[in-house]
Design goal:
The structure holds two protein chains of two kinds. By secondary structure, chain A is mostly beta strands. Chain A is built from one helix and 38 strands. The relative contact order of chain A is 0.15. In chain B, strands 6-5-4-3-7 form a five-stranded antiparallel beta sheet, with no helix packed on it. Chain B has a two-stranded antiparallel ribbon with strand order 1-2. The chains are: A mainly beta, B alpha+beta.
């Protein structure tokens, strides 16, 4: 057992002994010990590990490690690189458990490596059929762990359990029929003794759901449909039978509040994406945050960001939970920078809308009403001839993770100021085929637009600072007790900004697009920062 | 419809080689390598299927998108109709490129192939100008060759035009010559950079990213800058090329277009 002692928020980790080789392993103690639910509950207290997709259950992507900080980050250097043997882009967010890193690869594989050297322990390659239905690449974003078992989504819509010490398959559960358009790409979320998992397929006319499985057996515990059936009054928000093919997928990992026993999960676009004529109504619970009872799967409340969406603006973002003082009152909030270009702060106990403001260029709404419902601008729906609207189909942000620092009390998001011409067309539903009802086209070359890391005050929705990235970025964000914000860019950089000021502190050309989110961890007293770029996983640390 | 070879770059050729070696058997594709579905109606049907199944990555009109490359400047992974058919049907192994729906018939796939070819078919047409006279204008009065290279001869401060006839039709060529400031590709913007000491250097924007930029100045010298290492930088999004309207007669412009139009691969 080689867990480091719990590290106080401010204390620096001891540096390795002088003369010690970079990433050397003395073999004094074995790696990997069981990850109990207690450990997951208190993941923030062992920042040497990265135990789940968003770091902690509140999904803040904030680490208490501060050996690397805003005054020495300029000294970061490459420690190791792991080459994924697939040409697909890597969207993986690795986990680190007591010196072992678990990296997922396209299409649905996972490899365990030594977190100090990047050298392999084992790999698991999931066998896949040759008739997958996937809209947007062969992606996998990470695993979850409980005990000594990893849980991974697969492109054929299975959930698999893998032994964390050997890579052996423990169980394999089919969650839906991939031939109907279902697939799975997101890291699951462990909640007590269950594994909560979403599903992709919003471009194939699926009916979405969020599932929970028994971690030990793989048996389904509950299913929360993201489109209610005809026995529920909210089904009336779908014209006719359109609810059967209404999409509303759930393809990014949610968050969990153990005190409330509520799982928070975002849902995707209604289908067909760009032609709303065949699904008149608000189309609940598409483009929503769903608050689901962790034990029963019952819906506690929902908040729909974009009723009757016709621009493919999935609410597929990671919800971030924090406790804030707002107007003198303690609030348990959920913060959400949505693909529709608005930032929201919502009471996560009740679902009450507290505030919302644009954080990226948008032309589709004149504002939000007192309940947070958008007031649409005229003539912004797709047409056969095309309608120019901001944000573009990729949104003001998208699935890539934001972060929150309790030190600065700022929310950090990768934002994009862009536009698209949106088209509508008629389309018949054919099971297993794409069902989008239109398309989009960027009117100008990408270089005309840019992204920015924006730091948002969740009490006001105001942008405190921004750092421009060009032309566009689809990388997630991480923040640390060293007052750093790490992220990447499509133009192939991994970089660190000052979390307080937004000042540029360090950058490294990693040679390919970054479509993943950074993590940080420590082994043998050395803090590391890891990012996947292209199909390579890079790990950086300070010089010994 | 005739399919031209359109090898883009050596790296793409390597990718194509990888594909040829690793592509799984495609029995349906091997039944015929001749596209029988090339009528205007076939192309329209192919466009419809393309917009439904391919446009999310490659853009509504094949201009490229965030997930897939443009398909309007040739194909980097194949040079034949049969190869295109195979890629549309099966995808490219170990890449983001997946095959079309399993329910699509071979006929439908061929229609997509026809549509993709139509995006790249600028087709040789009869033009009023004289190519030989146009070549004289190009290297003489028009002074085009001072900036543009054709088959290894000419300047470097504009796009290489050795195969321009493959990618630009006569109307587009006329627009390029008469209104060069419209739709300037970012590669041909100018960056004006002010160094820390106040001196200024400007040149064609060879590439620019979040932290750095590289230019070619008017002497064809290459420069590299970190944005943090200079005082300021400014983008100029107009073209460095003058319009031919004030330089050439209409007949000379016609000759120049005729010359540029016949700069294509099969005639080299």
């Amino acid at each position: 057992m080689k867990r480091l002692a719990i590290i106080p928020a401010i204390a620096a980790i001891a540096l390795p002994a002088a003369g010690q080789e970079t990433g050397s392993r003395t073999g004094d103690a074995p790696s990997l010990s069981p990850v109990t639910w207690e450990r997951l509950l208190n993941a923030a207290d062992e920042p040497e590990n990265w135990l789940m997709y968003s770091g902690t259950l509140d999904a803040q992507r904030y680490s208490r490690l501060d050996q690397i900080h805003n005054r020495n980050v300029g000294g970061l250097e490459l420690k190791w690189a792991y080459q994924i043997p697939q040409l697909d882009r890597a969207e993986t967010v690795p986990l680190v458990v007591d010196g072992v890193m678990f990296i997922t690869e396209a299409p649905s594989n996972v490899v365990a490596v030594d977190a100090a050297t990047g050298r392999q322990y084992w790999r698991y390659d999931h066998p896949l059929p040759d008739d997958l239905r996937i809209c947007c690449g062969r992606n996998n974003r990470g695993v979850a762990i409980l005990g000594e078992t990893l849980y991974m989504s697969t492109l054929d819509a299975h959930l698999v359990a893998i032994d964390a010490r050997s890579g052996n398959l423990v169980w394999d559960a089919e969650t839906a029929d991939h031939r109907s358009g279902y697939s799975k790409t997101a890291a699951p979320l462990v909640v007590k003794d269950q594994v909560v998992t979403g599903v992709a397929g919003g471009e194939y006319g699926i009916r979405g759901f969020i599932d929970s499985y028994d971690a030990a057996s793989g048996e389904q515990v509950w299913r929360a449909w993201t489109i209610p059936g005809p026995d529920h009054p909210d089904n009336q928000t779908w014209a006719g039978d359109s609810w059967r093919t209404g999409g509303s997928s759930s393809w990014i990992t949610g968050a969990y509040d153990p005190d409330l026993d509520i799982v928070y999960w975002g849902t995707g676009n209604p289908g067909p994406d760009w032609n709303g004529d065949v699904r008149l109504g608000d189309n609940l619970y598409s483009d929503s945050a769903m608050a689901i009872n962790g034990a029963t799967g019952q819906l506690e409340w929902y908040f729909q960001f974009t009723p009757h969406d016709v621009h493919d603006w999935d609410a597929i973002q990671v919800p971030i939970l924090a406790d804030l003082t707002m107007d003198g009152e303690e609030r348990k909030v959920m913060m959400w920078a949505n693909r529709n270009a608005f930032f929201y702060t919502i009471d996560r106990v009740t679902g009450e809308f507290l505030l919302g403001k644009p954080y990226a260029k948008q032309t589709w709404a004149v504002g939000l009403d007192s309940n947070g419902r958008p007031i649409r601008a005229p003539n912004t729906a797709p047409t056969p001839e095309g309608t120019l609207v901001s944000p573009p189909v990729g949104g003001g942000t998208n699935w890539f993770s934001p972060a929150y620092s309790p030190r600065t009390e700022l929310f950090y998001v990768q934002a994009y100021d862009g536009e698209d011409i949106f088209y509508k067309r008629d389309e018949e539903y054919v099971e297993g085929d794409q069902f989008t009802g239109g398309g989009s086209q960027r009117p100008l070359p990408a270089d005309h637009y840019h992204s920015a890391i924006r730091a948002i005050d969740p009490r006001t929705g105001d942008v405190r600072w921004e750092y421009a990235i060009q032309p566009r970025s689809t990388a997630g964000v991480m923040t640390t007790a060293g007052d750093l914000v790490f992220s990447g860019s499509v133009d192939g950089y991994f970089y660190a900004l000052d979390a307080v000021s937004g000042d540029e502190l360090w950058y490294m050309n990693v040679g390919s697009r970054v479509h993943s989110a950074p993590i940080t961890y420590a082994v043998d007293g050395q803090q590391y920062v890891t990012i996947a770029a292209g199909n390579v996983v890079f790990t950086f640390g300070l010089r010994d | 419809m005739r399919m031209r070879s359109l090898w883009a770059i050596p790296a793409a050729a390597v990718l194509a080689a990888v594909f040829l070696v690793t592509a799984p058997a495609t029995p349906r594709a091997q039944e015929t390598t001749e596209n029988q579905f090339t009528t205007t109606l076939d192309i329209r049907m192919g466009q419809r299927l393309f917009r439904q199944q391919c446009s999310r990555c490659h853009g509504r009109d094949g201009d490229g998108g965030e997930l897939g490359p443009a398909l309007t400047n040739g194909f980097s992974s194949t040079s034949t109709d049969a190869g295109l058919f195979s890629i549309v049907r099966e995808g490219i192994p170990n890449t983001q490129m997946i095959g079309i729906s399993r329910t699509a018939t071979d006929q439908s796939v061929w229609m997509v192939v026809s549509y993709l070819n139509s995006l790249n078919d600028t087709g040789a047409v009869d033009l009023p100008g004289d190519p030989a006279a146009g070549q004289m204008v190009f290297s003489g009065k028009g002074n085009c060759s001072s900036c543009h290279m054709v088959n290894g001869e000419g300047g470097r401060r504009g796009p290489d035009l050795s195969r321009v006839g493959d990618r630009r039709d006569p109307d587009e060529l006329a627009s390029d010559l008469r209104t060069p400031d419209e739709d300037v590709l970012p590669r041909w913007w100018t960056l004006r950079i002010t160094r820390g000491d106040g001196s200024v250097v400007e040149g064609l924007r060879m590439s620019e990213d979040t932290f750095t930029m590289r230019i070619m100045d008017e002497n064809e010298d290459l420069w590299s800058f970190s944005k943090g290492g200079v005082r300021s930088h400014e983008r100029i999004t107009t073209s460095t090329m003058p319009s031919v309207n004030a330089l050439l007669t209409n007949a000379e412009v016609d000759d120049l277009i005729a010359y540029l139009h016949q700069l294509r691969r099969e005639e080299s």
